[in-house]
């Protein structure tokens, strides 16, 4: 690398997190996009704006086998030695691979390979080696040196536009490889078709349709380089039909150079450059012209886009002003950063988007968002957004869910949707609690009746997930539907939120119906064994029964009886009575956390990570369990378990997440827990108290008011809560309400070295529907 580029790299490194003095650091400086890029976190380090449509990030391996793809779900894995290129779309922390659209790799010199090559054989293709010492990752910015090419690559992104900047070594020709064959989880036949063209003004546009996790997904792009093309070549490596230059075969009716096929790779040649090459890029689900319009919607070069996105991240992360140790702040703000990426903007600048029916729709009065990992994110991610994002953002999310239901060929709300396409991944109809929680917390500006209709339609669509049997029997039978025990309790919770929403809208008939359904969890709870169990359609529990068994497609979803027996967030008091009362519940919770796993092997189950006994923090069904000691009147035990979980499951390092971040849910759990409270039952309008991990944190709420959580005396020694006051008055209960929080004020935890073992009476415990 030339001396100029070395000085640039050193200057960038000087602005890294570790270089800034602690007193001057803000949430932006503490947020590290590299957290979770190793281990099982599945996050990506590249550039994205808050909730941005484009996620521009390096891909270290896209040609993985099926099992290996799990570890590369975000395209980048921190332990890999090479970067294949930079693509425009990525999930943050998903448990499945897809996206990685429109990969670009810079190549310097006379030889331009069109294959990525073997990562074990340097120089065998266009991929390049790199070192982490040359990486810089900040919110909205990523940079790295591609050693084999001598190219310094920089990335930034706006809402619908991203900018790539490549500094090529002096004296070498600059080229780009645009590989439309490359995709994450790229099995044979995934690319159904693709196209690329060079327009008369030098703008490169194109598209492709993929059959991956989501079927028939169409995406279009526009790329405008800062330097003119000298030459180019398009090749269909499947059809072996080359097209080279600006004339001859492949010239379209509109006079542009173009090629269509299923395996297209393009070489773009810029010759010798005396300054870095910038590429402004944009996406659209509508068509190429819409991608061009999106490109025009956000003006400016690399530095201008970077400055706007940096300001946007500082504002978003500034919604919480935290004080604490450097490690605590890096943990907290890296997690907070990861909660602010999805759901992502998906409608174009003119409001158009491609919906679940594969048709183009117009969003009227809202911005359509997609990427809904709802089985994960209904728990804490969406409740957090209601506190830290403007009402307009949350309103957009709700309206997007309703629009998706109205446009769905099946007439139901999204299950796991991305880029407008349904994947049918995971269980439940968990868009329902997202909508209900928002409405019950006072969010307005959307059609409440249409929302309730969408919720009911999803809960009564018989062909989905055994719902026909659930409605007939009051539980999902295992001989008719897999994962029946999990589905029964998750449906019952969702039904409870429908009842709450219906009552708020004056639909007391619907409320009565769904109140009854909300108690269906009892139909699968076996009092004799003390566990949730799957039942057959004849009413018998399925045997043999092993509460520690975890197998895909069995009685439970990504878990076993130990985790799922606690999933009754709407009626923990009712569950506790069936378990034998508070003392029995505490013993069982302790047995779960202290379980000896030494003779169990869960290596066959990818999502089972972060084990503490039979508590599995790396997967969502366990996320509320540590707070259940408070429901049994022993909050000091919740405080102990939270300390155990935070210390063992989170670090501000590349391997710092115990499991998939799942579009922000793992991170949202940490944000809430470090603040000192958690939404165990979204829809109840209560936050269950835990213990804070920050000395002080102030939330600037969507209504403009400020709510502060303080923890005088907090230290490693002082890990217990002596007492809690709200606005100077001592709290005699283990929860605060959403209304109290939104009024602003101060929640004060007085910390001490020994537990306060005062048992909280039933009246001071969090909500349960049967109390």
UniProtKB/TrEMBL annotation:
Keyword annotations: Signal
Signal peptide stretch: 1-19
Domain Glycosyl hydrolase family 92 N-terminal intervals: 32-284
Transmembrane segments: none
GO MF term set: carbohydrate binding; peptide-N4-(N-acetyl-beta-glucosaminyl)asparagine amidase activity
Residues of the Glycosyl hydrolase family domain: 291-752
SUPFAM superfamilies reported for this sequence: Six-hairpin glycosidases (SSF48208)
InterPro entries reported in the protein's UniProt record: 6-hairpin_glycosidase_sf, GH-type_carb-bd, GH92_a_mannosidase_put, GH92_N, Glyco_hydro_92, PNGase
One annotated GO biological process: carbohydrate metabolic process
PANTHER family the UniProt entry points to: PEPTIDE N-GLYCANASE PNGASE -RELATED, SECRETED PROTEIN
The protein's name: Putative alpha-1,2-mannosidase
Organism per entry: Sphingomonas trueperi
């Amino acid at each position: 690398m030339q001396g100029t580029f070395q000085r640039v790299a050193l200057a960038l490194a000087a602005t890294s997190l570790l270089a800034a003095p602690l007193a001057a650091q803000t949430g932006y400086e503490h947020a590290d996009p590299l957290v979770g890029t190793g281990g099982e976190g599945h996050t990506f380090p590249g550039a994205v704006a808050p909730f941005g449509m484009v996620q521009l990030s390096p891909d270290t391996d896209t040609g993985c086998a099926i099992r290996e793809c799990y570890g590369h779900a975000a395209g980048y894995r921190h332990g890999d030695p090479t970067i294949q290129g930079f693509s425009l779309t990525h999930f943050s922390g998903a448990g499945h691979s897809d996206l990685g659209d429109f990969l670009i790799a810079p190549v310097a010199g006379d030889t331009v390979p069109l294959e990525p090559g073997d990562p074990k054989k340097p120089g065998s293709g266009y991929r390049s080696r790199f070192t982490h010492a040359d990486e810089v990752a900040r919110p909205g910015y990523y940079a790295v040196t591609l050693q084999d090419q001598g190219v310094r690559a920089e990335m930034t992104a706006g809402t619908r536009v991203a900018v790539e900047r490549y500094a090529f070594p002096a004296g070498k020709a600059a080229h780009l490889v645009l590989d439309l064959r490359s995709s994450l989880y790229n099995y044979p036949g995934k690319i159904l078709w693709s196209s690329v063209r060079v327009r008369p003004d030098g703008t490169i546009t194109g598209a492709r349709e993929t059959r991956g996790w989501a079927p028939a997904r169409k995406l279009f792009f526009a790329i405008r380089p800062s330097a003119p093309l000298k030459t180019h070549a398009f090749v269909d490596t499947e059809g072996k039909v080359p097209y080279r230059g600006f004339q001859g075969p492949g010239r379209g009716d509109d006079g542009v150079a173009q090629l269509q096929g299923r395996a297209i790779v393009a070489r773009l040649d810029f010759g010798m450059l005396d300054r870095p090459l910038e590429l402004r890029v944009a996406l659209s689900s509508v068509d190429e012209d819409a991608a061009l319009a999106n490109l025009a919607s956000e003006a400016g070069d690399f530095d201008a886009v970077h400055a706007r996105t940096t300001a946007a991240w500082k504002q978003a992360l500034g919604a919480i002003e935290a004080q604490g140790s450097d490690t605590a702040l890096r943990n907290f703000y890296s997690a907070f950063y990861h909660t602010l990426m999805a759901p992502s903007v998906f409608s174009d600048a003119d409001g158009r988007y491609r919906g679940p029916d594969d048709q183009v729709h117009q969003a009227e009065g809202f911005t359509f968002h997609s990427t809904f990992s709802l089985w994960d994110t209904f728990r804490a991610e969406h409740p957090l957004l209601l506190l830290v994002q403007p009402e307009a953002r949350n309103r957009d999310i709700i309206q997007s869910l309703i629009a998706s239901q109205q446009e769905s060929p099946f007439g139901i709300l999204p299950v796991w949707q991305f880029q407008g396409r349904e994947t049918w991944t995971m269980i439940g109809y968990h868009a329902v609690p997202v909508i209900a929680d928002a409405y019950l917390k006072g969010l307005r500006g959307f059609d409440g009746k249409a929302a309730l209709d969408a919720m009911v339609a999803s809960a009564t669509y018989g062909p989905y997930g055994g719902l026909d049997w659930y409605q007939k029997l009051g539980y999902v039978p295992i001989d008719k539907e897999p994962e029946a025990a999990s589905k029964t309790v998750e449906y019952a919770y969702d039904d409870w939120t429908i009842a709450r929403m219906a009552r708020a809208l004056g639909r007391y008939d619907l409320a009565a119906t769904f109140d009854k359904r909300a108690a269906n969890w009892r139909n699968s709870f076996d009092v004799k064994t003390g566990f949730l169990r799957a039942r057959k359609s004849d009413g018998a529990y399925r045997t043999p029964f092993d509460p520690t068994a975890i197998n895909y497609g069995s009685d439970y979803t990504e878990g076993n009886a130990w985790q799922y027996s606690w999933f009754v967030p709407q009626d923990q008091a009712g569950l506790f009575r069936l378990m034998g009362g508070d003392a029995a519940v505490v013993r069982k919770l302790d047995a779960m956390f202290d379980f000896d796993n030494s003779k169990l092997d869960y290596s066959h189950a990818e999502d089972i990570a972060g084990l503490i006994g039979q508590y599995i923090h790396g997967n969502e069904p366990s996320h509320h369990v540590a707070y259940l000691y408070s429901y049994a009147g022993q909050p000091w035990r919740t405080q102990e378990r939270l300390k155990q979980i935070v210390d063992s499951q989170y670090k501000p390092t590349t391997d710092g997440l115990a499991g998939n971040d799942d579009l922000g849910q793992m991170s949202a759990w940490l944000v809430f827990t470090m603040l000192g409270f958690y939404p165990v039952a979204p829809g109840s309008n209560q936050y269950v108290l835990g213990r804070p991990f920050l000395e002080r944190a102030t939330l600037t709420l969507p209504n403009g008011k400020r709510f502060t959580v303080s923890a005088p005396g907090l230290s490693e020694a002082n890990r217990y809560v002596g007492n809690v006051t709200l606005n100077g008055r001592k709290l005699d209960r283990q929860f605060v309400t959403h209304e109290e929080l939104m009024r602003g004020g101060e929640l004060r935890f007085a910390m001490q070295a020994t537990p306060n073992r005062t048992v909280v009476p039933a009246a001071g415990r969090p909500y349960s529907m049967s109390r």
